Structure formats: C-alpha cells, structure tokens
Amino acid sequence: MQQFDAEILENRELAEDYFEMFLSWPENVRVPFPGQVVSFNVERDITPFLRRPFALASFKRETRVASVIYHVRGPATVRMAAKKAGEVIDTLGPRGFYFQLGRQRNPVLVGGGIGTGPMVFAANWLAAKGFSPSLVLGYRHRDLVPRLELSPLVNLSVCTDDGSKGFAGTTVQLLDQWDPRALDDAFVWACGPNRMLKALHEWAHPRGIPCKVSLEEVMACGVGACMGCTVETTDERKMVRVCTEGPVFASETIKWT
Amino acid sequence: MDLTLTLRGLTLSSPVGVASGTFGYAKEYEGLVDYRRIGAVYTKAVTPEPRVGNPAPRLVETPAGLLNSIGLANVGVVEFIARKMPFLCKIPSAVIVNVAGAIDADYEHVVEALNEVEGVDGFEINVSCPNVKHGGLALGTDPKLVAAITRSLRARTDKPLILKLSPNVTDIGQMAEAAEAEGADAVSCINTLVGMVIDLKTKRPSLPFGTGGLSGPAILPVAVAAVYKASRRVKIPVIGLGGITKWEDAVQHLLAGASAIQVGSGTFANPRLAQEVHDGILAWAWEENLQTIADFHDFT
Questions:
Q1: Which end of chain A is more exposed for a tag (fewer CB within 10 A), N or C?
Q2: Which residues of A touch B265 (CB under 8 A)?
Q3: Where in chain A is the domain with CATH 2.40.30.10?
Q4: How many CA atoms lie within 13 A of B202 on its CB side?
Q5: A61, burial (CB in 10 Å: exposed 0-12, middle 13-18, buried 19+)
Q6: Per-residue pLDDT, B137
Q7: Is A146 an interface residue toward B (CB < 8 Å)?
Q8: Which fold is adopted by the domain A2-95?
Q9: What is the pLDDT of residues B47-97, one digit of tens each?
C-alpha cells in the first residue's frame, strides 16, 4: 500500500448520480485485485475531514489505468464528481484482502447499487481467466442502472426494485428463480447494502454454495490503526477490521444482524 | 537550533509525536511515514487484558471532526510485549506507552509489567476512561484522583510519566498541578471532548453508548486554550494535542505554551501529517529565528 497523487484521466457519469473516475496508476504501486480498495483525501480541507474508501472497479495492466465507480450522495462525492481530467487526487492503496478463487468453477457475482464497481472488476477479471461469470446487479430504478464495460463472456442480469428494467425484484429473488442446474459448482462473490448481503448469505449457505462478501464500513485511518471499522463475527471474542482483515470475508464468519 | 525536549533523561528528537489511538502500534504505518521525523509514538492504549472494544458503529464524522467510541480495543499487555514491542524497538522514535484501565490496579499492573521491557521509553496515562471503582467517574475529573494515580505510578517507574488530561473539566490547570505535585514529568493536553450525534432517521444517538470522543480540527481552539491555561499553572512541560491538521496549528500549540505536540486524527486524512508538521515547525522556527522550544513561549 502506498500514498500517491493519482492523475484523473476521465470522470464520467454512468447513470443518475453514478460516476466512474479513471486514474493513472503509477508503475511503482502494486497491481490491484478485485475487492481491494483505495481511499481518497478528496480535498486537503478540514471538511469533509476523513478519507473516503472505494473498491476498485477496473484495472488495465497494459495502460496502468484503474477506476472506481461511486454514487454521489454526500459532500465528498459531490466534490469528486466536480473533478476534471488532469487534476490529481491523493490516493492510498491498494488495500485489503481481495476475492480469491476456491475449488468451484461457476462464478455468480452479485452487486447492489454502490457495490457495482468491485463486481464489475471481478467479472471482467474472471472472464480474462477463461470463466463465464454470471453478474447479477440490483438497483432501485432503471435511471440508476449504469452503462458498463463488460467482457462478452460476462452474462449480465439486471434487477430493479420497481420493475422499470430487467427483473422486477431483488437480486436474491432472481437467484431463487434460477434453474438449480445453473448453480452447479457455483460460488458467490458479492458487494452491496448489508441487507442484500445478509439475504444472499441466507440463500447461499443452506444450498452449500460458498459465499464471499465485500463489506463497507465508515473508516477513519483505513490502515488498521484506529479500530473504527470493525464488524462482529460469529466468534464472540473476535471483531474484525474491514480495512485489514477484510473487506472480503466468507459470509459465514460475519454475525448478520 | 534545538527543538528537542528532554523528559527525565529521555530526549525527543522531534517536537512532533503521534497521538495514542491514531497510530496503532506504529507498524500499521510502515512504508507510509518517515519515523525519523516522528519524535515519539504514543501507542494505542494498553490495558492488562485484551479488550474487544465497543459494538459498531464506532465512528461518526462530524463538521470538521470525528466522534469515536472505540472502547479501548487493544491486545492486552502480554500480547503487546510479545507481538507489538519487537517492531516498536526497531523504529527511531521514542516509544511512550499509553496506559488505560477500569480500576487503579489496572494502571499499576501495566506500568509494572512494562517498566523493565526493552524499548519502552515512558508512559502516558489516560485518565479519561470511566473508572468503575469511582462510580464510572473518570480519574481525570477530580484532582485528588489525578494526584493519587500519579503518586502510585511514580512509585513504580523511573521512566518519564506523562498524565494525559481530559478537557471535560472546569479547570484543567488544577489537574495539571495535581499531576506535577506528585511527580509527573509532563502533562498532555487534551484528550477528546465528550460529544453526541443524533440520527434523525432513528431519532437515537448514532453511537451505541450515546456519547463519544470528539477530535479533529473542530477542537483546535479548545485545545490551544487548554494548553495555554495548563502551561501557566505548572513548571513541567505541557505536550499539546487536539485539532492539528497542519503545521500552523502545531505552532499555535507551541506559542500557547506547549513544549512538544502530538498529531492525532489528522493522520487519518493524511498519513504523512506528522513529518509535514515536523518540517513546517522547523522551517518556521528558522524563519523567525527561534532557537529552542522555550523561545516559542516568549510571546503569549
């Protein structure tokens, strides 16, 4: 992990209030993997005071360009959206444990809202490795569905809560309707709101489908020092830091509330 | 120019330290900072037993600040010695162990356990945590309790002993006097302020136990005033902390009467803050022809 000034190459709107920011990734900074995060000190200002963590949405080795997809919803992301190509942003990363393959060979990737970025990264990364991943993305409404750059090997399904685009319902409701044969040898990787991750865990666990989730928490330091971003685990004696032991966890280790 | 501070034979090579709770056990920032420009690392608070800490959420961002309720989550003194000291021994910064507890015996236990440990250069005593023997009252809110804990720990160590004072009192100078009278080598001003954020959606406090500790640039003027008041009441050095996010803030602390400073939650936004503040203080002192830290105290 390093702290560096990344040059912004492009900052484009993908859907209503969803943006993707492309950054140059210096040669001396380690290659990032799906699930890993960077944090930005968006402005050298006293407010917003803290850095903001984002999971990476892409990384291209040939050009050393990385990106994050973000939702404009507070003072830091409003400032991010106003940034132009050529400006630099104080970046710390790459950080955290990434999604790692197990024995299973049938990837089912699930993203909800702000969890879109890392699942797009994971889908394209798996496709480049010869997998044919299913990518299931859920949003509230069709205006929030982003235009994404996906490998032709990725099978995308979109869900909207109000049925304005794709499947009418949640990502887990869609998975529930799948032919069980489509889930042979499956594994699930997911990122999104906690209630979606909890529902996904409760769906995958009884079916014996390994499920890894990437969690989001408010972070102060983002390097494991402040103990602020902890979550409870099924082991009562133990709390884990999202920034250090995560952000990717096996879903059965998390105490879902 | 010599901006060092010597406490009971321990010389801090830079006036800038990193505050307890914001820098972990120093290894977390390996590769991101230059330890040579950090005079002292004040460790995460150490208690006799490991502590899991408080339930989530533990953090809320506030206007120009941060409210936290971590609950002194730490590995406990045994693990601290076995797993954290080896790295702390390797860095050039002085290692001041921050000590916390729920009863007086906790502090005594930690200081005794660490007093002879190689690499431990001194102790900073957190008297802001609730003390169960005194009805949950923090020791730092009563000068008699500050005096008693200082006396007890002074008898147990010849290493530098620093009392970290709470700002949640009427007269911080009185607490500083109590610490000085019982042999403390310095006081740190200030710990976090008590604060609360209420979430309009739930109509309840955002943090599980209601209140938390406020830090960040919002508290800078409170901290500078506390340093100013305390430093006029005691002869021992005052170490200033609270609200520092740039070197100019640190210079305010020094001009107010501090003999060294700590950067705290500002490190969260900028990991290189301590070294940037170090460089800034030195450059400003050079420009203003200030030769020692005492020269900063001639103006206010």
A1: C
A2: 49, 220
A3: 2-95
A4: 9
A5: exposed
A6: 76
A7: no
A8: Elongation Factor Tu (Ef-tu); domain 3 (2.40.30)
A9: 999 999 999 999 999 999 999 999 999 999 999 999 999 999 999 999 999
| Nearest residue in chain B measured CA to CA from A226 | B22
Note the Cα B170 to chain centre separation in Å: 20
- Written out in words, the top-level CATH class of the domain with range A106-214 is alpha beta
Does B189 participate in catalysis according to the annotation? no
| Cα distance between residue B217 and residue A224, in whole Å | 22
Strand (E) or helix (H) holding A232: strand A230-232
The C-alpha atoms of residue A8 and residue A82 are separated, in whole angstroms, by 12
pLDDT digits (tens, 9 = 90+) for A183-198: 999 999 999 999 999 9
Q: CB contact, 8 Å: B280 with chain A?
A: no
In this predicted structure, what is the pLDDT of residue B30?
97
Count Cβ atoms within 10 A of the Cβ of residue B93 and give its class: 0-12 exposed, 13-18 middle, 19 or more buried. Answer: buried
Coil, strand or helix at B97: strand
User: CA of B280 to nearest chain A CA: how many angstroms apart?
Assistant: 16
Domain span(s) for CATH 3.40.50.80 in chain A:
106-214
Note the pTM of the prediction, 2 decimals: 0.95
